[in-house]
Design brief:
mainly alpha
Length: 513
């Protein structure tokens, strides 16, 4: 147990800087415009009091950064409605002049529902965090019933603008997200070819699957070319060859907007629909979020602070994860990023900026945060923290040094309590799910052995491999997980890959039968 706990709470992964290929600058600028346009309009109209709520609606642009446009089309409206509803829920508690306990209960409900939503639809970063921030900012700033409709309308209008800006690229470069996903898949396969390992193969297989399933149906030339590149990548995953340089060259050309012809013609793989986990698999994480948010909020409220919700935001942030290990990593990153960002905020406040200057700082900080957050969450927090402090200074002027101290204290408190709740509420379901996934993968492997030319048996094994991978990713980060069983998972996965390679059509010729 002690060894497992120490392995779970290691900090090395939290400090790693991840290299990101493409999909950074354009989304960051899009986010900046989503913030700048409504805030500038309110500045011109002399309604700076509504600027924080315009920023809350602009959180919509933080989601689906590089997702295909069909996915954005249905998911971003869900985000926009959720953010607007979160602001409305928080504003109601403030307009009612509800006590701290009622506000904490509302934030706990928002945090739990947002976590469930993020897990079920695989929302991606920043997951359910911004819903909690939106509800907290509205609940802990003075609101009146006469102004309620205004702040909800401004939030909704800003969210709608963010949605429109996020979808605008669909008319300009509809295959842009597909090109980027395919390029990243080719690079992941190239990494595996150059330095083969179980982890590299896993990343490559996942990237290829993600790119393949995201491609639209149809016979457009670009789509067919991308499918051809992915078919070649799938072949190289099962039949490695000296093709890493070729894949990297093709990926770089795709990023620049040109899709070259594939090096080899191969049978086009069919996308495999991966089965999503049921609600039961997310129960423990939702319970952790509910308990941690409630306890953190109640304890923070005893200090009678103006921004006690920051503690709930902090605990919600670290619990936007799938196991205890990633919760600990996010706690380390959030603490370090908040401290660094608070020092930056002190420098900004020392210049005594005007409200208009603060709005410029908010936009610049959000762009900077988006440029680095995918590389490391802590780096993103270095710029997101001054943004949050500037928003707080606009909505509720206070002693700025006290504001910074409150931010740091509530962040550390919430982050540590989130980790503590994860350690107390063990996810025993994770081990059961892993055992079931291993049995399912072995059963699918036996089926493919009996019918090697059956495409359905092959797809069944592919789904089983992805299910095993997801289950292991969750279980491996829990302190009660028996890490000596990791080799069994690797052996099962290796056998599945061996069968997939043996049943892949060689050198572009279709399988007989």
């Amino acid at each position: 147990m002690n060894g497992s706990l120490l392995q779970t709470l290691r900090t090395r992964d939290a400090l790693r800087i991840t290299s990101i290929f493409g999909g950074v600058l354009v989304p960051a600028l899009r986010v900046g415009v989503s913030y700048a346009v409504p805030i500038s309009a309110l500045l011109a109209a002399g309604r700076l009091d509504l600027a924080p709520f315009a920023a809350l609606g602009a959180f919509t642009s933080l989601y689906c950064r590089v997702d295909p446009y069909p996915r954005r089309a249905w998911l971003l409206p869900v985000v926009a409605v959720g953010l607007t509803a979160s602001v409305a829920a928080g504003a109601v508690t403030s307009a009612f002049d509800a006590g701290g306990v009622v506000k904490v209960l509302v934030l706990t409900l928002v945090a739990t529902l947002a976590k469930l939503l993020a897990d079920v639809v695989r929302l991606g970063p920043p997951a359910g965090l911004m819903f909690v921030f939106a509800a907290g900012a509205a609940a802990y700033s003075p609101q009146t019933w006469s102004g309620f409709a205004e702040i909800v309308a401004i939030t909704g209008a800003s969210a709608a603008l963010s949605y429109a800006l996020s979808m605008l690229g669909g008319a300009l470069h509809p295959t842009g997200p597909h090109r980027l996903a395919t390029a990243r898949a080719l690079l992941a396969v190239a990494d595996h070819l150059e330095a083969p390992s179980a982890a590299a193969r896993r990343r490559a297989h996942t990237s290829v699957h993600h790119a393949l399933t995201g491609l639209p149906a149809g016979v457009r030339r670009t789509t067919l070319l991308l499918r051809g590149h992915l078919a070649h990548a799938v072949h190289l995953l099962h039949h490695p060859a000296d093709a890493a340089a070729e894949l990297r060259t093709a990926a770089k050309r795709m990023r620049r907007g040109r899709v070259p012809a594939p090096a080899q013609e191969r049978p086009l793989p069919r996308p495999v629909v991966v089965e999503h986990a049921g609600l039961a698999e997310f129960r423990t994480n939702a319970l952790r979020m509910a308990v941690a948010s409630l306890v953190t909020g109640l304890l923070a409220s005893t200090f009678q602070l103006d921004h006690a919700y920051w503690a709930v935001v902090s605990v919600s942030s670290v619990l936007q994860s799938h196991n205890t290990a990633t919760t600990w990593q996010r706690a380390v990153q959030r603490t370090a990023g908040t401290v660094a960002g608070s020092l930056l905020a002190l420098g900004i406040f020392a210049a005594d900026p005007t409200p208009a200057a603060i709005l410029v700082v908010i936009v610049v900080c959000q762009i900077a945060a988006e440029l680095v957050v995918m590389a490391n969450y802590g780096l993103g927090l270095t710029f997101a923290t001054p943004l949050a402090l500037c928003l707080a200074a606009l909505s509720q002027p206070a002693d700025r040094l006290q504001l910074v101290a409150e931010r740091v204290g509530m962040t550390v408190f919430g982050a540590l309590l989130g980790v503590g709740v994860c350690l107390v509420l063990a996810n025993n379901r994770a081990r059961t799910r892993l055992r079931e996934a291993m049995r399912g993968c072995r059963r699918a492997a036996r089926d493919l052995q009996r019918s090697p030319a059956d495409p359905q048996a092959r797809e069944h094994l592919l789904r089983a491999v992805f299910a095993l991978r997801d289950a292991h990713q969750v279980a491996a980060g829990e302190p009660l997980h028996p890490h000596h069983g990791d080799q069994e998972v690797l052996d099962t996965e290796h056998e599945a890959y061996r069968l997939l390679a043996a049943t892949t059509a060689p050198a572009g010729r279709p399988l007989p039968g």
